[in-house]
Amino acid sequence: MSRSSLPQERRIVTAVPGPKSDALTARxxxxxxxxxxxxxxxxxxxAGGGVIxxxxxxxxxxxxSGIAVTGVGNSAEPVVANVREQVGAFTHTCFMVTPYEGYxxxxxxxxxxxxxxxxKRSALFNSGAEAVENAVKIARAATGxxxxxxxxxxxxxxxxLTMAMTAKNAPYKQGFGPFAGEVYRAPLSYPYREPAEITxxxxxxxxIGLVESQVGAGxxxxxxxxxxxxxxxxxxxxxxxxxxxxxxxxxxGAVFVADEIQTGFCRTGDWFASEHEGVVPDLxxxxxxxxxxxxxxxxxxxxxxxxxxxxxGLGGTYGGNPVACAAALGAIGLxxxxxxxxxxxxxxxxxxxxxxxxxxxxxxxGDIRGRGAMIAAxxxxxGGKEPDAEAAKRIAASCHREGLLVLTAGTxxxxxxxxxxxxxxxxxxxxxxxxxxxxxxxx
Length: 443
Ligand SMILES: *Cc1c(COP(=O)(O)O)cnc(C)c1O
Hints:
By secondary structure, the chain is an alpha/beta fold. It contains 13 helices and 15 strands. The strands form three sheets. Strands 4-10-9-8-7-5-6 form a seven-stranded mixed beta sheet, sandwiched between helices. Strands 1-2-3-13 form a four-stranded mixed beta sheet. α7 (200-214) packs parallel to α8 and α12 crosses α13. The model has no long low-confidence stretch (mean pLDDT 98). The chain binds pyridoxal-5'-phosphate (PLP). Belongs to the class-III pyridoxal-phosphate-dependent aminotransferase family. Pathway: Amino-acid degradation; 4-aminobutanoate degradation.
């Protein structure tokens, strides 16, 4: 499935990080702000298919996809071909000055792919946070209301408004306030950590009750939610939660915004995670997986909401850059041609089965969850549900030494998350799972 010219193999030939990476880290320390961190400080030379190769010649199995970005793999053939052609034709004119076809073609693809048969419009931006900010702007302009409802454990970005919408304090918010106003946080459905069994619908009623009493239904411009939370720890709300929220929004005149920035573009086994329960959001924010690694983001939604903003009200110098649009068209074509949503489901089935075995074998594995190629293990102190961030950190470090890149997540930092490229060859997926199993056994 992977057409990368790089050998699809795990190969560790130096300490991790190796001497060349260490030398670059020394240069980095003197030049790069320390506020920008790195999970695994090996410097990359090439990447493709399911591997990342560093400057010391180590080849890592990639269970991160640059945080769910390179679903189609790094330097995927049609992405590279489209980018080469576009970059030779023109690199930027600014769509707000003189437009070009690529931008329109991406918006046409989004209209076809985003859930719902209603008429849609899109606007393109550079980053996920920028898309979320613009979704809020559009919802406010369309409703004439101010309040934004978000959820516990949410992650929506690092700009001022999206910091306010993000739940976790350190490292995302600590010291960076004051934050934007009119943002209200409601309780999520978090099946593993509910104090007592509660259905998705009842968990939605619990959130709605608080919104109605503390915010007022008539003040809510939008409810913004990740269908499966990303940075929050791959939390999948109980069945019925999302449909009930969407229904409440419809009845209350609030805009239902699905933040599909991490879940979108085949990652969870559907084009978009909202499809799983047949939810049709009013607005959808996308970014990460959209363009095979180039920076591009979008808000897509009901024509009457999107067109409520006066001309000139939306935009940005680089939004919908022609090279990024060309990359997106290549990436989306590949997703369709290679049926990557189906492939994600296959990855999920393999991973859930293997990780289920690990949960039965190890008392510190509290929960295994996720859909498609978005799978997580939540680690706890054996005998209860007390989060064990140290265990997650140690397992991640052990995987990194052995040549498997994994990421952590979660409000309590105790979740290992797995986001392999959807083009990951089977033998690498299985080898990655074996490395993981050994790291669990060593803990
Ligand atoms: C990553 C992410 C964002 C922010 O995207 P950036 O491109 O980093 O600004 C917003 N929402 C979700 C769900 C994300 O995963």
